[in-house]
Specification:
The protein is an alpha+beta fold and 291 residues long. The chain has helices at 46-61, 77-87, 94-108, 110-115, 120-123, 165-168, 194-201, 205-217, 249-253, and strands spanning 10-21, 25-26, 32-33, 41-44, 116-118, 134-136, 139-141, 144-149, 153-159, 174-192, 229-240, 256-260, 272-276, 285-289. It folds into 2 domains: 10-45 and 143-289, no CATH class; 63-136, no CATH class. The two termini are 33 Å apart.
Length: 291
Amino acid sequence: MFENAIKNRYEFIMLYDVENGNPNGDPDAGNMPRIDPETGHGIVTDVCIKRKIRNFVETVKEGDEGYNIYVKQDVTLNAQDAKGVQAVKDISGRAEKSKSFRDFMCENFFDIRTFGAVMTTAAKDKDLSNVAGQVRGPVQLNFGVSIDPVVPREVTITRVAITTEEKGASASTEMGRKNIIPYGLYRQEGYISANLAQKITGFSEEDLNLLWTAIINMFENDHSAARGKMALRELIVFRHESSLGNAPSHKLFELVTVECTAGAAPRAYSDYSVNVNTAALPEHVTCTRMV
């Protein structure tokens, strides 16, 4: 049991939008924006948002003890796992060694402490086999889904820089493609388990505050031409008085409704109305609109 771990369960809803950009490309569809083929609603994966949170934390906490990032570009998972294996090499007893490995990784890596990890490479170590391969994190996200159907567009672009000398002999420009959504408002829901934080990872109040800060600012340091104009519009947080919760999460999510008020296709956040029915909040649950 971690004494500094959070004591309350949380659920939260993020509302964010994209304007003339691709919020999350699908590699199985030529990097077109992800779409539910049955409904036409846009999709953003949990992994996409976790990447932005990791990037923000790494930016603001780089070099700070306990805030390393486990899943990061140009660093192999084998190398990350090796740090934990090295730290527990002198500990005897399989069970104790396994627990010490897990505790070391949670203590040193923010994203393991937050989202958990499947550390299969470390589990191949003969002393850690089948006992150190997975940490279940307290923070989990659903897929983001657009409020209304979106219509991806493939925009043709040109450039004056030619790729090869052969092409340059017969052409002065080259054609390219950009995949965009003219506008989409996405809703994504998340859960924070105090029980898992207390028993497994030690996710603390300080970590929680950093998570909120990262979510609020995750698009501000992630701008690119491909993603267009993206912004977090709402962060609605439900806080339970107990660690196991005082109401079902789906009942809380149903208190938040988002409706398009525009007569035509929505093209701005002002075309939507967001309502939080705080009058129907269950007992021992509070709601805060952080953005």
